[in-house]
Amino acid sequence: MIHQTAFNNAAAQQSAERDAARTSHQPAANTVMPVELTVNGNIYRLSLDPRTTLLDALREHLHLTGTKKGCDHGQCGACTVHVNGRRVNACLSLAGTHAGDEITTIEGIGRPDALHPMQAAFVECDGYQCGYCTSGQIMSAVALLHEPVGRGDADVREAMSGNLCRCGAYRNIVAAIQCVRGQS
Ligand code: FES
Ligand code: FES
């Protein structure tokens, strides 16, 4: 009996040691690192958990809530921003990897009194319903203007396939994008 108890204690201790070794590689909950982000032309110096995504840094730390969190898994496009002019899903990117990058959010491409042509076209063409996907759609659409995308509606649909709209406003979204492309 005594032997059995000693064996159980030793096994429990080994198990605790294994758990400690396994978790020692995890960052402590209160670990932070300095991160400098350039967003919409402004420089921000933040202290962030190294695991913070660009999306959470924008929304939770900089309060730029125009960038939306949909799936948080890179599947809906609601979180689309520009990094050095190219579209990126902010939920899939760690904030700490963007030192020196030029990040642009929906707040940086136009103002209510001076809309970007793509924003104006979405309004004109009724390219949204609830609006939750709209900032991501517009950021993708603006980036698309500088991408090698064919002229047809099918080409636009393909290029915008990473941006989902639960309201199904796709037809008007394509119309808005084609309207702006027709102006250039
Ligand atoms: Fe980033 Fe859905 S929230 S792709
Ligand atoms: Fe509602 Fe696209 S307008 S999800």
Briefly, what is this?
The chain has 184 residues and is α+β, with helices and mostly antiparallel strands.
Could you name the key traits of this structure?
single chain; 184 residues; alpha+beta; Ubiquitin-like (UB roll); DNA polymerase, domain 1; five-stranded mixed sheet; 6 helices; 14% strand; disordered N terminus; binds FE2/S2 (inorganic) cluster
Would you identify the regions where 5 or more consecutive residues have pLDDT less than 50?
Answer: 1-7, 20-25
**What is the annotated CATH architecture of the largest domain?**
Roll
What spatial order of strands do you see in the largest sheet?
Answer: 2-1-5-3-4
The hetero compounds bound to this protein are: FE2/S2 (inorganic) cluster
Order of helices and strands: HEEHEEEHHHH
The main pleated sheet reads as: 5 strands, mixed
Name the structural class. Answer: alpha+beta
Briefly, what CATH class of the largest domain? Alpha Beta
Q: Determine the mean pLDDT.
A: 90
Shape: elongated
Indicate the radius of gyration in whole angstroms.
23 Å
Helix content: 25-40%
CATH topology of the largest domain: Ubiquitin-like (UB roll)
**Ends apart, CA distance between termini:** 86 Å
How many strands?
5
How many individual domains?
Answer: 2
CATH superfamily of the largest domain: Beta-grasp domain
Per DSSP, what share of the residues sits in E-state strands of 2 or more residues?
Answer: 5-15%
Q: Please, how many helices? A: 6
Could you characterize the architecture of this molecule?
This protein has a five-stranded mixed β-sheet, with helices on both faces. The protein is α+β, with helices and mostly antiparallel strands and 184 residues long. It contains six helices and five strands, in the order H-E-E-H-E-E-E-H-H-H-H. Strand 3 and strand 4 (86-89) form a beta hairpin. It is 38% helix and 14% strand. The longest helix has 22 residues, at 2-23. The protein folds into two domains: 33-108, Ubiquitin-like (UB roll); 117-183, Orthogonal Bundle (DNA polymerase, domain 1), CATH 1.10.150. Bound molecules: FE2/S2 (inorganic) cluster (2 copies).
